[in-house]
Amino acid sequence: MNKLLYTEKLFQRYKKPLFKGQIKRNKKDEKIKTVTEENVICGDKIKVYVKLENDKIKDAKFEGSGCVISMGSADLLMERIIGKKVKEIKNMKDEDITKIIGFTPDPARMHCATLALRALRKIL
Amino acid sequence: MIPKRIKEDFPILRRKINGKRFVYLDNAATSQRPIQVIDTVTKFYKFYNANIHRGIYKVAEEATEMYENSKEKVKDFINAKEKAEIVYVRNTTEAINFVALSLGEKVKKGEKIVVSKMEHHSNLVPWQLLAKRKKAKLEFVELKDFEIDINDFEKKVKDAKIVALTHVSNVLGTINDARTLAKIAHENDAYFLLDGAQSVPHMKVDVKKLDCDFLAFSGHKMLAPFGIGVLYGKKEILEEMQPVFGGGDMIKECNLLRCSWNELPYKFEAGTQNIEGAIGLSAAINYLEKLGMEKIQKHEEELTKYTLNLLEDEAGVETYGPKERSGIIAFNIKGVHAHDVASFFDKEGVAIRAGHHCAMPLVRGVLKQNAVARMSFYFYNFKEDIDTAIEAIRKLKKEFGE
User: Which residues in chain A have Cβ-Cβ distances shorter than 8 Å to B401?
Assistant: First the structure.
């Protein structure tokens, strides 16, 4: 059996991310939060931006560098959380990431998949 | 020439990984074990299992003899003067920690300990701890073209109490001129410890020739079981040092208030030892000596040259290390994280390592990389293994669109 390194959608998002970038404040009263998170072991770094409105995620973006799994899953996660309630995000578990990216990475690579989620938990 | 048939001695190399031939290129982390070592350990448990040094019965005497013969073997292997200079420990890390704890007692406030910027954490953290404990200074020799900058070393070694350097870098593959470094350290009245984790398994290391005061190495990187390692120390220095662990077998006489220590090396071996490990190590040395350390070194040199030549022609591949080096090649592929490289290799059946390789000051500080991938060889690797690895790099570049 051939081992799955990553799903096609994860790889595509790694190569061509849709949610990479910054969120700039346009109006004074806009609620934008940022946080950085890193995997010390592999040196992956991420900065996550979320725009909040009435306890909902209005927009989400990320900047960073890292492997296919950490960057691809960050992009897919940003897409998934936009429009969701903060409470829903807080309840997200590590396993939810494997559903979003479509496969379960090797145990040694799980921390890559959860990098962006850990950043989100720190913000919210 | 090392004959290809020796691969058959390593049962694990017959495995298939993801339907592909298993190519093991992570030898700097641990070696594989030949059937000769595995059988020796099994045979010990089947027929000779007993605790050593105390039993007044046949089997215990045999076990003791096997353990003692193992020390004799190690002594000859590194050309130590006597068996008393060979202390068994768990691994290189424990050997270095032991020296930092015991010899470290001689270090006074403000005195200097010198290491280099290419050390594995195992030859860095014990000295950080010692420096903190004794309020001593820790200084770092700079690197120049992936080698120890000898001018900087000569400056920093002045007034040093202890110098601890690696023989072969586990990332760069740099082979340090241990003999010269030891000589300079001694001219400055410093103790000289050599981290032999990456050298002893791959080349003839002669402690008399190198004139190091201590040599630390691990059995598991040279075909022996996990959990057996060696600390060599010059007898006259070991004599002056105090035990770190107290317990059974390390004392001569004991009353409720104090003890007198057993003779060397037993005063440093408290409690029941890793007897199977020691016996396995002896079988491992037998295996290595039968092949010949010179042959092993030559074989790995050729393999390393072959690999470096191929990598040089691969666009987008960057390697880190000097031209002349041991069988360790750290590399990165442009635009691809080292962990993705390792995962891709694994899919192709090739085991390599990626990360900071327990040498963060080197990888992050000197090489300025978050992570590097690393191939490392042993004598059971042949050109066909390298060809598989190069093929994996080509496939990866295609997939990542480089």
Answer: 15
Reported residue count of chain A is 124
Residue type for B13, please? L
Higher pLDDT: B226 or B18? It is B226
A41: contact with B, CB 8 A cutoff: yes
CB pairs A-B closer than 8 Å: 43
Tell which of B333, B363, B370 to mutate to test the A interface (max A CBs under 10 Å).
B370
Q: Mark yes or no for CB contact B337/A1 under 8 Å.
A: no
Chain B hits for A106, CB-CB cut-off 8 Å, are 343
Residue A79 corresponds to which tokens in the numbers above? Answer: 């897409």
CB contact under 8 A, B339 and A42: yes
pLDDT at A2 exceeding the cut of 50? no
Cα–chain center distance at B144: 23
Which has the closest alpha carbon to B123: B195, B218, B213, B222? B195
Contact B281, B70 (CB under 8 A): yes
Tell me how far apart the alpha carbons of residues B312 and A73 are, in angstroms, rounded to a whole number: 33
Query: Which residue from B17, B38, B23, B92 is spatially nearest to B377, judged by alpha carbons?
Result: B23
Q: How far is CA A43 from CA A11, A67, B232, B349, in A?
A: 20, 10, 36, 25
Contacts of A1 in chain B (CB under 8 A): 18-19
List strands edge to edge, sheet with B137-141.
Answer: B86-89, B229-233, B214-218, B191-195, B160-166, B112-116, B137-141
DSSP, res B103:
G
CB contact under 8 A, A43 and B347: no
Strands B160-166, B191-195: parallel, antiparallel or unpaired by DSSP? parallel
pLDDT tens-digit profile of A19-60? Answer: 999 998 888 878 899 999 998 888 889 999 999 999 999 999
What ipTM, to 2 d.p.? Answer: 0.86
The residues of B annotated with a catalytic role in the active site are 358
Residue B323's identity, in one-letter code, is: K
> CA nearest B194: which of B287, B102, B323, B95?
B95
Q: pTM of the prediction?
A: 0.94
Residues of B (347-376) whose Cβ lies below 8 Å from A: 347, 354-356, 364, 369-371
> Chain A 50-79, CB below 8 Å of chain B: which residues?
65-69
**What pLDDT was estimated at residue B99?**
98
